[in-house]
Amino acid sequence: MRGFFGIGVESGDKSGNLGNLMRTAHGFGASFLFTVGRDYNKDDTFSDTSRTDREVPLYRFDSVEAIMLPARCVLVGVELTEDAIDLPSFAHPRQAAYVLGRERGSLTPEILARCAHVVRIPTSFCLNQATAGAVVMYDRVRTLGRWPVRPVTPRGEPIPMLEHRYGEPISRLKS
C-alpha cells in the first residue's frame, strides 16, 4: 500500500481506549499516533499489549492549534455529523491523519474546522474510539491495498489478481 497514515484522539475520556487503538493501529501499519488536548500516561495505555510506543511515534499536542502534520498529510475527522461522507463512499487520501472524538461527546468545532474531510461510520449510534479507529483503518487498508476481487457469492473463489507487468522506465525529470 502506498502512502502513510496516522491516527489520533481528541480529548479521550475512557482509560484503555487509547491503548486498544494504539495496538490496532500498530497492527494496521500506522506511521504515527497522536493525542490532542489531553496528555496520557502509561496507565491509560494498559490495553496496548504490543507495546506500540516502542515501535510507532506518539505525538502529544496540547491544542488544536499545536497540531503539526507531515507535508501533504491531510486531517480527516471521524464523526457522526450531517454533512460527513459515509465511510464506504470515501476515497482515502494517500497521506492522512485520522482524528476521533471522545465517546461522550464530539470532535470540537475547532478541530472540525481543521479537517479537510469528515467521515462517518454508518452506524445507528457512535462506537467507542478503539472500535471506530479499527473500522476506519480496515477500510483504508481494504480500499488502498492490493487485494484480489471478492467473489460474487459466498462460496465463490476470489478472482486472482493479474500479474504485474513491468513497462519502460518513466522519467519524471523534464529535459
Give a written overview of the molecule.
The mean pLDDT is 85. This protein has helices at 17-28, 109-114, 129-144, and strands at residues 4-10, 32-36, 58-61, 74-78, 85-86, 95-100, 117-120. Helix 1 (17-28) links the parallel strand 1 and strand 2. With 175 residues, it is an alpha/beta fold. It has a 7-stranded parallel β-sheet with strand order 3-2-1-6-4-7-5. The protein is 19% helix and 19% strand. The protein has 3 helices and 7 strands.
What attributes characterize this protein structure?
175 residues, alpha/beta, 7-stranded parallel sheet, 3 helices, 7 strands
Largest sheet: spatial strand order: 3-2-1-6-4-7-5
**SSE order, one letter for each helix or strand:** EHEEEEEHEH
State the secondary-structure class.
Answer: alpha/beta
Intertermini distance: 30 Å
Radius of gyration from CA coordinates: 18 Å
- What is the helix tally? 3
Overall shape: it is globular
State the gist of this model.
With 175 residues, this protein is α/β, with parallel strands linked by helices. 19% of the residues lie in helices and 19% in strands. The longest helix is centred in the C-terminal third of the chain and has 16 residues, at 129-144.
Strand-helix topology:
Layout: E1 4-10, H1 17-28, E2 32-36, E3 58-61, E4 74-78, E5 85-86, E6 95-100, H2 109-114, E7 117-120, H3 129-144
Parallel strand pairs: 1-2, 1-6, 2-3, 4-6, 4-7, 5-7
